[in-house]
Input
Amino acid sequence: MSNPNAHDFIDGGFAVPGERLSGTVDDPNTGEVLEPQVATSRTGVEQALAAADRVHAERSWLDFGAAGRAELLVDLAAELALRAQEIADSESINPGIVISLARAIAGGCAEQVLGVTAQLNESGDFSELPGKGRGGPVRLRRDPWGPALVLVPWNAPAPTAVGKSAAALAAGCPVIVKPSEWAPGSSRILAQAIAAVGFPAGVFQLVHGGAAVGSQLAGDARIRAVALTGGQEAGRSIAALAAPHFTRLQLELGGNNPVVVLEDADISLTARALAAGMTKLNGQWCEAPGKVFVPQGMHDDLVEALLGELRQLTIGISTELDTNLGPLAFSEHRERLLLQIATLTNSGGRILSSHEQLPSRGWFLSPTLVLGVDAAKARNELFGPVLTIHPVSDAAHALRLAQDTPDGLAGYVFGSDIGEAMDVAERLPGGEIKVNGTSLFDLTADSHQSFWGASGHGGHGAGELLEFFRGNRIVGVDNPDAPI
Output
């Protein structure tokens, strides 16, 4: 790629996006403009759609066979491992992820590809099944739905772009990736790795832009599967565009995740876990704890302990190793979050911030606790290092408040009696409920998490993503002795 501005990757070649948007991609640590936001022209998007449709119609990628696709995916994993530092640097600058975590995320990209490759090797493209009576042979085929679209979020773009693209490619789908206009860097590195490995033209493509490009893609009948990680508003728009074509959807849309603190909870452990959970990815994490329900008599102690944990964090430049909490990803998001906090204040909330001094430039926000606001007025997700804390009379009261939500992504319970904590956890809305922790990782390698309610459609787990991109077909010789 001789032209450093040739960011689109369409039908096997790099090209300069045809349009410039009004916004800019900035360094969130300083506010310095890094580049203009760009968009692929409608003609370029049409070329990408036509190429993906051609690959699917000709079966050229599917006919590589599971073994052939797996071989290229293994090569891709090796290429991504070589580019891990480059990916980490991009994640640290585009969305502002602290470099220590960005390196861990980047280092895991190769493992994501190898994981889905192992699933492909185990399942293959088909299985031979016994026929009935004198019938047979019978074959169960696992075939790709067709051209797939992956819409990548801005908060943690690398694992989403890599993981979902690898699953689509493994399934045999030609895939088109559109990153957020706010954080396109790591998706571009993925495209460069794809090109370096030598995937066939049209199998993987990268386009750029905002809602207009996303709408052109998602509303096109040639796209047969869409995977989106983003906000609920975006999810509703994509669902409406896909509905006329019955396009297969996986929508991970977030939510305001509840936390129930039981009377026997360890305050220190709870505060430490909540501080970690609310600041992971600088608070820009869809499964972050959002609203905390704590017994009235423990409320003040938890607030004090939580502030103590938060004050130990070093807020600073995301590229520095000793930084625990970096900036928000871009200025518009910070302004939107500040407006949400002001709305809670106007509704009776009292604000406690852990840090008085912040870096003088960039999009920084001190970890913030909102006390005293009615739980019914704290329903919306706060996508940043912010928690609302609500006193309750008992666990039953906490559950009533926690269940009063349209969301259903994640939740948390803290308590010393594991049996009781598990019972409460099983009553919380959400696809993944964790007891006594807020880790970024799934609870088990065999995790199967569905997105409930307004938090989306579909789910994710160890084997679910690969299967999302393909369907089953039975092909065989009928039984001539069938009675009807």
Observations:
- The CA atoms of residues 350 and 371 lie 5 Å apart.
- The chain has 15 helices and 22 strands.
- The longest helix spans residues 65-82.
- The mean pLDDT is 95.
